[in-house]
Amino acid sequence: MSADPRPLTGEPLALDLLNTRWMRDGVLQDLLTGTDGLAVWLAANALDGRFAADAPTLRHVLRARDALYAAVHENVTEGVDAVLGHGRIRATLTAEGPGETPEFKDPAWGPAWLAARDYLELLSVAPDRIRGCAHEACVLHFFDTSRNGTRRWCSMAACGNRAKASRHYARTRES
After folding, report:
1. Sign (positive/negative) of CA torsion 74, 79, 81, 83?
2. Spatial distance between the Cα atoms of 133 and 109, rounded to a whole number of angstroms
3. DSSP-derived 3-state class of residue 134
């Protein structure tokens, strides 16, 4: 399996799925153009041992990604709700205590359903902290975990630095 080429990883599952699209040198990149990219995404989220990187799973994950994009950017929730219709949470009680186990009508829906479910959890925790990068040429998303909730960039080293350099260049050009 190849290395994960994405510039931002480690975000919550729903946002990490959205971040399978990113810009590089002004060109939109897409990790999920085939099952090899799906295998990379599943492995990055520790889902590779539970779900197959096959065509049906890829089709469902792409459907979930489109639904999450519509929910985040257009407040259209029907797509996420449709994905959630393919699974459920079963409450459990084991020797370790209470728990929850996701169940799916078809295992190929597992990663898509888990990403949609993760989005619900983010909404219940802090919906105002689900953000898109403030750089005009960036399409990445993040969950703002900063203390005061003012994070603006997917990465200060990349997008934040570019924005600061642009402002500095504009100021020095004016003088």
Report:
1. negative
2. 29
3. coil
Q: What is the pLDDT of residue 13?
A: 98
| CA gap 97, 68 in Å, rounded | 32
DSSP assignment string, 98-117? EEEEEEESSGGGHHHHHHHH
Q: What 8-state DSSP symbol labels residue 129?
A: G
pLDDT score of 2:
82
Q: What pLDDT, on a 0 to 100 scale, did the predictor assign at position 28?
A: 97
Any idea which residue has 């079963």 for tokens? 90
Query: How confident is the model at residue 21, as a pLDDT?
Result: 98
92 class by beta-carbon count within 10 Å (0-12 exposed, 13-18 middle, 19+ buried): exposed
- Which DSSP category does 23 fall into? E
Q: Specify the long-range contacts of residues 68-72, CB closer than 8 Å, at least 24 apart.
A: 68/14, 68/17, 68/18, 68/115, 68/116, 68/119, 69/18, 71/119, 72/18, 72/130, 72/132, 72/141
Could you tell me where the beta strands, DSSP code E, fall in the chain? 21-24, 27-30, 87-94, 97-104, 130-132, 141-143
Q: List the chain residues with pLDDT less than 50.
A: 168
Report which DSSP code applies to 156: I
